[in-house]
Amino acid sequence: MSHIVSIRTQVKDPVAVQAACRRLKLPVPQQRTAQLYNSEATGLVVELPDWKFPVVCDITTGNLQYDNFNGHWGAESHLHRFLQSYAVEKATIEARKQGHSVQEFALTDGSIRVQIAVAG
What DSSP line would sit under 24-70, residue for residue? Predict the structure, then answer.
């Protein structure tokens, strides 16, 4: 039986953040305080390609802090790819913890279909 699931992503798992960064060939995320345009943010810092300032993940709340000046200081597509990769990695981690097998399929529109086969 097939089920379609929509996921609203909260970035709370540092292991999945690291896996998403590896998947996208981004620098290893670091826990630190980062300078944004006119403020600072502390959390797990992710450096996206061609972004003037980093994305800071608050692992306790799941919120992201960043300043890309409405796309002028970094293409939002890079943020969307990071969030997509995070969601895939988190779903995969949780499914495997429960003994399920996971397959990924890249779709022509750039999205990823994750198929989880429930064990037993």
Answer: TTPPPPEEEEEE-SSSEEEEEEE--TT-SS-EEE-TTT--EE---GG
Per-residue pLDDT band for 95 (boundaries 50, 70, 90) equals very high
The total number of structural domains in the chain stands at 1
Q: Does residue 100 lie within any of the structural domains?
A: yes
pTM: 0.89
Q: What is the Cα–Cα distance from 20 to 57, expressed in whole angstroms?
A: 13
Across 44-52, average pLDDT = 97
112 contacts 105 by C-beta, under 8 angstroms: yes
Q: Of 6, 3, 26, 19, nearest to 92 (Cα)?
A: 19
For residue 77, give its domain range.
14-117
Give the number of other Cβ atoms within 10 Å of residue 45's Cβ. 20
> Is pLDDT at 120 greater than 70 in this prediction?
no
- Any idea of the CA torsion for 43, 60, 103, 118, to the nearest 10 degrees? 170
